[in-house]
Amino acid sequence: MATAQDAIDAVAAVGNRIDLMEAGHTNITTQLATITQQLANLIGAPPPPPGPGPGIPAPQPSTRRRLDPSTMEKLHGDASTSLLRSWRNRWDDYAALNQMTSYPAAEQMAALRMCLDPSMQQVVKIVFGILPTTVTTPDAVLDLIGNYVRGKRNAKHRDRRTPVIAVEILDGNGLSARSFANVTPDPGAEVSVGGLDFLSAIGLSESDLSSSSFDLVMADKSAPLLSIGQRDVRIRYGEQAATITVVICPEIHGVLLSWLDCIALRILHSDYPLPLPRLPASVQTVTTPASSSNDVTSVFLENLNIPSSPSAEQKAEIKAAVANHFSDVFDQSTGLRCMSGPEMVIQLQEDAIPYYVNGARPIPFADRPEVKQLLDDYVEQGLIVPARDRQAVANADAKMRYDLRSRGLEPLPIGTNVRVQDPKSKLWSHVGVVVAIGRYRAYRVKFASGSVLWRNRRFLRRLVNTGGSEGDDDGAQDQACDNGGDGRDGAPHTTEESGDDETAVHVDDKSASPRVNPPAQRRSGRRRTPKVIVSM
Q: Does residue 375 contact residue 367 with C-beta atoms inside 8 Å?
């Protein structure tokens, strides 16, 4: 009976312990649910549903997807009304796809600030007084930005458009043949450009065009325009007529007049881009005495008679007098001399970085023919030399120096043990013997495995010292080195083979195989001193 009673007591104790453990699990589950509720309240997410019962953990809350504003183009501070309207539409689509209304207001404003460039952020912060800590919505801020952009527009310039003029196209007799109304003066263009509509308006086709001096016309802040040709046309605007060169580009419509053609038609004044001088209220006529043709222009030309139209001899005398007076400028017999003046000192800081203020500007298209003609005249007179000629002289001098120090490779007689360069690894890992000599420094090399191949002299080196493994080349090495061999088995035989169109004699003696024990390498008796390198 004592044993049965002890067993009953033990079972009761175990049952009590299990009850205590279940109560502990229930308390832990309750505490976890409380902590989860507190975290949900802190981050603003909906609380998770309660657990199904004790002992089963509650489901974890789903993580929210972060907003990624990197896909949105930034809104610039100088955006126009149309650009702002299209950007606002993209923003609405972005907000709808990312369900932005479900995010806190602070995160929505942070995403909006990431989509504004620094200038627009300054407008929002300074003009509107909206700080990062201000509680508002992106729609309210964008409405303020829209009012700000629309308010900057001037009402009197709202309907102002680019002026378009109509010109008359003249024939060979100077009479008006037809008119073209879609012509826009462009003071910033360097060449006049027209479209296919202008080409058809003047009654021409693409076959009537001459080749253009350039294939592409680069428009400002846009893609290059393809040129299909050009045409010289004489036009008249008002009372002024001029001959202009129009480059035809199919991508545009109408005609854009360059600033040079605008000056020729007197649309722009001759001193453009300088401003027009202010005319005085009253203009008085001042009569100046006519200057005679014998007036002295300089002191050193006192004894010379300079007429209005000097002859060739008089021009030569004037040229000699000018060169004699300014001998320090025109005399180049002594080379470049020192400039007279105070000592020049250039002071640089330790962190100075060289830079240029104004870079080289390209020559306008309208001035390039005149500049090229001027440069050609200077070349004919011997004043300048084209850069390509100087480069050719430098190349010839460098070639002469290199050729002077170069020497040919030593020829290899038949029976010479040589090293062969591997064509892939570029290592001199193969050893063979020369068995034939062909044209153009071609040598036929035979390996210990029996394979033979032709190699140029630059891929062969005389074998000076060989070890035990260097004289034996297995078939794999010979096969890797054999690119273009004749595929013969290399058995001893007497034959004549053509090596690059010239007869090459093979040796049928067994002495053509690589020597197993070559003579020892000779060493010079000169005493060699170690090289000393001193770093300053």
A: no
CATH of segment(s) 165-264: 2.40.70.10
pLDDT the model gives residue 419? 94
pLDDT exceeds 50 at position 113: yes
Spatial distance between the Cα atoms of 453 and 442, rounded to a whole number of angstroms: 10
Calpha distance 40→102 (Å, rounded): 15
pLDDT bin (cut points 50, 70, 90) of residue 416 is very high
Q: What angle do CA 325, 331, 337 make, to 5 degrees?
A: 110
Q: Please tell me whether the peptide bond between 310 and the residue prior to it is cis, using omega within 30 degrees of 0.
A: no
pTM above 0.70, yes or no: no
- pLDDT one-digit tens code per residue, 370-408: 989 998 998 898 888 777 777 888 888 888 888 887 888
Q: How confident is the model at residue 447 (pLDDT cuts 50, 70, 90)?
A: very high
Three-state DSSP class for 430?
strand
Specify the long-range contacts of residues 28-35, CB closer than 8 Å, at least 24 apart. 29/54, 29/55, 29/56, 29/57, 29/58, 32/57, 32/58, 33/58
Q: Locate 524 and state its tokens.
A: 């010079």
Kindly list the distances between the CA atom of residue 303 and the CA atoms of 294, 300, 307, 421, in Å, as whole numbers in the listed order. Answer: 11, 8, 13, 82
106: tokens are 């602070």
- Domain boundaries along the sequence of the chain: 9-59, 69-153, 165-264, 372-406, 417-512
- 178 and 202 in contact (C-beta within 8 Å)? yes
The DSSP 8-state label assigned to residue 276 in this structure reads: P
Cα gap 314→284, rounded to integer Å: 40
Q: What amino acid occupies position 141?
A: V
- Joined together, the tokens standing for residue 357 give 């203020």
Task: Give the Å distances, CA to CA, from 291 to 135, 294, 297, 303, 385.
Answer: 83, 8, 11, 18, 41
Q: How much is the CA Rg of the chain, to the nearest whole Å? A: 47
CA distance 504 to 381: 60
Closest CA to 130 of 141, 119, 143: 141
Considering only the C-alpha atoms of the chain, give the largest distance between any 2 of them, rounded to a whole number of Å. 159
pLDDT value, residue 503: 41
Q: Alpha helices of 252-367 — where are they, by DSSP H?
A: 259-264, 312-325, 327-330
Rounded Cα distance between 437 and 444, Å, is 6
Sequence-separated (6 or more) residues with CB below 8 Å from residue 26: 54, 55
| Secondary structure, 3-state, 60-101 | CCCCCCCCCHHHCCCECCCCCHHHHHHHHHHHHHHHHHCCHH
Give the angle subtended at the CA of 142 by the CAs of 138 and 145, to the nearest 5°: 145
Q: Left if phi > 0, otherwise alpha if psi is -120 to 50, otherwise beta: which for 84?
A: alpha
